[in-house]
Specification:
Chain A is built from seven helices and two strands; from the N terminus they run E-E-H-H-H-H-H-H-H. Chain A is mostly helical and 242 residues long. In chain A, helix 1 packs across helix 3 and helix 4 runs antiparallel to helix 5. In chain B, helix 2 crosses helix 3. The longest helix of chain B has 134 residues. The chains are: A mainly alpha (242), B mainly alpha (182).
């Protein structure tokens, strides 16, 4: 039986250009997103069909999340937030198909995406507000003697954002897939053991089915959490004052 | 974790399916390739979404919103126009009612004036005839009364002649009658 972490292995496909199964599924996710949305909106119907409704729901869902967190002026980040949400969601969902590689189960990918978010916040924050952006670390209404500690705490919490943002997604995807594989592996092991143990095999199978449902929930939820946090961080870049 | 991994690797090794696999997410030598393809993919995805997909999707939604807003505006305009028309109708109706009333009043006045005039003419006519008749009656009456003397004289003469056998002198009869009349 294969190890539960074998599914995370990076396997080269075209070694010369570093093209691996991970690259393939990244491109696959992007293709599914762009192709799916273009296909869904090809009729540009005023009264949408099912596919177009879904595309519009996704659009409005992300737009509402962004506007709720940042206000109307946050809409300039809409393409970025929508791309992030769709990429993470699609990568997570593709990963749910048995045998498919989960792009977001690699810390380097989620960390790169988190750095993209924080980088955008920092660059845009300084561009828009200059040194005022540093006011983010200096909450108003704090006694002067307490201020140095608060600034240090704020700074640490800001620096830990890309780590927590990337670790949350990575760990959720990784743990879910390992758990699934472990329970699926139990089924095989019990069947292979034969005899009385075979009767027990349906139990981990049931568990695997339940976990599968849970993992679909987690896949969607983590994409949403990633998006919401992105919006909240972007709000800091737009409105640095506490 | 790392220890668990090596354990695993050694237990798996006899199976021969795969040799020592570390923990793939922590295999740093794969990072460069993943980052490269993530960057390429994400830039392409972002470009396609922001240039092609989102304008189309946003356009559809915006288009629908504008259409609904337009239709609502049109409906409001039509409603106000309908209300205006209703008010104009009410006004016209009130005006017409007023005019009809005035006309009725006028007609009634005219008719009553006419009938008054007719009645007056008739009354005048009747009065005239009445007066004429009265004049005729009084003329006849005075005429008749003028005959009474002669009749009384003749009658008295006739009675006396019958009683006495001879006709009285007309002057005496006349005198007696004048005496009675007085």
């Amino acid at each position: 039986m294969a190890s539960p972490i074998e599914q995370f292995q990076i396997k080269p496909i075209i070694p010369v250009i570093n093209f691996t199964n991970s690259s393939l599924f990244m491109i696959g996710a992007a293709a599914v997103i762009v192709g799916g949305l273009l296909l869904a909106t090809r009729k540009r119907a005023v009264v949408p069909g099912r596919a177009q409704s879904m595309a519009e729901v996704l659009h409005d869902f992300v737009a509402n999340t962004l506007v709720d967190a940042t206000g109307k002026e946050g809409m300039k980040f809409f393409p970025l937030v929508f791309s992030l949400f769709m990429f993470v969601l699609t990568a997570n969902m593709l990963g749910m198909i048995p045998g498919f590689f989960t792009v977001t189960s690699h810390i380097i990918v989620t960390f790169a995406l988190a750095l993209l978010v924080i980088g955008t916040v920092v660059v845009y924050g300084f561009m828009k507000h200059g040194t005022h952006f540093l006011g983010l670390f200096v909450p108003s209404g704090v006694p002067a003697w307490l201020l140095p500690f608060i600034v240090v705490i704020e700074l640490i919490s800001f620096l830990s954002r890309p780590i927590s943002l990337s670790l949350r997604l990575f760990a959720n995807m990784l743990a879910g897939h390992i758990a699934l594989k472990v329970f699926a592996g139990f089924v095989v092991s019990l069947l292979a053991a034969g005899g009385g143990l075979m009767i027990l095999a349906p139990l981990p199978l049931l568990m695997a089915v339940a976990l599968m449902a849970l993992e679909f929930l987690v896949a969607a939820l983590q994409a949403y959490v990633f998006t919401v946090l992105t919006c909240i961080y972007l709000n800091d870049a737009l409105h640095p004052g506490h | 974790m790392a220890q668990a991994q090596t354990n695993h690797a050694t237990t798996e090794a006899p199976g021969g399916a795969h040799e020592d696999i570390g923990f793939p997410p922590f295999e740093t030598e794969t990072y460069a390739g993943q980052l490269l393809w993530l960057a390429i993919t994400f830039v392409v995805l972002y470009t396609l979404l922001s240039r092609l997909v989102l304008p189309r999707l946003g356009g559809i939604i915006e288009n629908r919103r504008a259409m609904i807003a337009n239709d609502l505006d049109d409906a409001a305009g039509m409603k106000s126009r309908a209300e205006e028309a209703g008010a104009a109708y009410e006004r016209a109706l009130a005006e017409a009612k007023g005019r009809a009333q005035a006309l009725a009043q006028e007609t009634r006045a005219k008719l009553s004036a006419e009938s008054d005039a007719k009645r007056k003419a008739l009354e005048a006519d009747l009065n005239q005839r009445l007066a004429d008749a009265e004049a005729t009656i009084s003329a006849k009456k005075s005429e008749a009364m003028s005959h009474v003397d002669a009749i009384a004289r003749d009658t008295a003469s006739a009675i006396i002649e019958r009683l006495t056998g001879k006709a009285p002198a007309p002057q005496k009869v006349e005198a007696a009658l004048n005496q009675i009349k007085a």
